[in-house]
Task: structure prediction
Amino acid sequence: MSRFTRFDAPAFAKWLRGAGIQRTVNHIQIHHTWRPRKTDYTGEATIRGMRDYHVNTNGWQDIAQHLSIAPDGGIWDGRSFELNPAGISNHNAGGVCIEIIGDFDDGEEVLEGAQLAAVTAAVRSLMDVFSLNESAIVFHNEHSGKTCPGSGITKPWFLQQLKEVDDITTQQTYTVTDFPDVPDDFYGAASVQAVKDLGLIKGHADGRFGFGEEITREELAVILHRFMQIAE
Result:
C-alpha cells in the first residue's frame, strides 16, 4: 500500500528546500480535482483513492500530481518530483502539478481559508526553490477546454492571493528537529533530534523522519548496531 506524507506549509517549505530535486522545473500547474469534492475528503484514504484510480483505471505509472491540497490546509505529497506529472496533455515536461481537492466551478465549492493559504504557500515555496515568477503559473484551462481549476477561480484573482499571502507562512521553520515531518509540539521531538545527533537514526532519503510510521525489525537491528558501536 502506498503511503503519503501530510505537511503543513512550513514543513513543506523546509522539506522542499532540502529535497535536492534534480529535475528541471519550469512551470507550476494548478488544477482542481473536481471529484473528489471537498466534502468527500477523508484524509490519506482520499489520496490513496486518487492514486488507485490514476494507476488502475487511467494506466498511469503513479498518482498524477506531485501535491494535493486538502480542505483542512494539509499539503499531501504524491508523485516523485523527479518525474513529470500527468496533468496537462502535451504540456507536462518540466511541470509540477498541484491538485486542489474540491469542485471550484461556479456555484459549487469555494477555495478559501486554510486550503487557500496552503496552496498559495506551496506555490510560493516552489517559486522560491525553482527560481520561478508568476509567468510560470499555469492553469489547466489555458491548455484545454476544461474549466479546471474551476470556473469560480480566475487567474488574476489567484495571482492576487499569491501577492497577499503572509510571508511568515513560508519563512517559519521547525527549531526542535532537522526533520520536516516532526512537529515542534510533539512531546518526543527533542529525543528524536538527540538520537539523530548521536547518529542512531538518519531518517529517510527524502529527509523525513517517518513520523508515525512503524519500525521494521531490520531498522531496529541497524539502530541497535549503531548503538553498540557508540557504546564501545
